[in-house]
Amino acid sequence: MPIPIKIGAEIDAMRLAGRLASEVLDLLTPLIKPGVTTRQIDQAAHRHMVEVQQTVPATLGYAPPGYPPYPASLCTSVNEVVCHGIPDDRPLRNGDIVNVDVTVIKDGWHGDNSRMYIVGEGSIAARRLSQITYEAMWKGIVKVRPGARLGDIGHAIQTHAEAAGFSVVREFCGHGVGARFHEEPQVLHYGRPGTLDELVPGMIFTIEPMINAGRRDIKEDRRGNRPYDGWTIVTRDRSLSAQWEHSVLVTDGGYEVLTVSAGSPPPPSFAAHGFGTTLVAALPA
Ligand code: MF3
Ligand code: CO
Ligand code: CO
Predict the structure, then answer these.
(1) Mind listing the domains of the chain with CATH numbers?
(2) Ligand 3 mean position, distance from CA 89 (Å)
(3) Neighbours of ion ligand 3 (CB under 5 A)
(4) Helices 150-163 and 124-141: angle between axes, nearest 10 degrees
(5) Of all helices (H) and strands (E), which one includes residue 15?
(6) 62 CA closest ligand 1 atom index
């Protein structure tokens, strides 16, 4: 299957879906504090999507081959949970770190994004892991331009994470996003420069590195000898794991981040063009 290329009105629709996905996170931000359960966060998000935005929560009932239907309207991945954590009734506690991953469907188009939150104070180590992971996502984003390759993105992310002493999860990756939730290409968060597919204007994909404080290995969550829920992934060594995600468009001049809203954290200083490159720089032949 080829990598879908979006044009004109399709890109406008993806801009709207992306902004709405980001606005769900804006709505949730003040809720994420000690004592609040991840189920309460899910319920607030579900209501906002369905009643205010008139979007569809893409994760609710999502069942790729080999998976049971996902039972919630977002994912909440706390501490050693790497990804796909299912909201439940455990209250968040001071010092927890939590990734909240929201995907909305608007007019048939998907906007997919996630942010990390530190509950209450948070240790220096937890803050550093989240910060380095945010920077790693942006190290990947700023590589996006026509003619670059997917391996350039993965290499930039891996280099930044490993220089900080952290590790990159290999089993899950970013993905094309559009009329389908997960489509081509796969966007690995590790790799070698100059390898894999060349980027072309109109491609839209997520960049969503999962970075572990300890070793990169993961496993299905069987903590407490519970039966596996079919989704939750944890670090094998129980070290903390962080993740940030944006949906990104390849433009003629470079990139445009689609999952942006009033509450989006600012890009790091090395991302000189912020959420989008508008200049069409003439590249040497
Ligand atoms: N939003 C996740 C991603 O970034 C996918 C979640 S699928 C779910 O690709 F079923 F676990 F919700
Ligand atoms: Co995604
Ligand atoms: Co996501």
Answers:
(1) 8-282 (3.90.230.10)
(2) 22
(3) 101, 112, 245
(4) 160
(5) helix 8-28
(6) 10
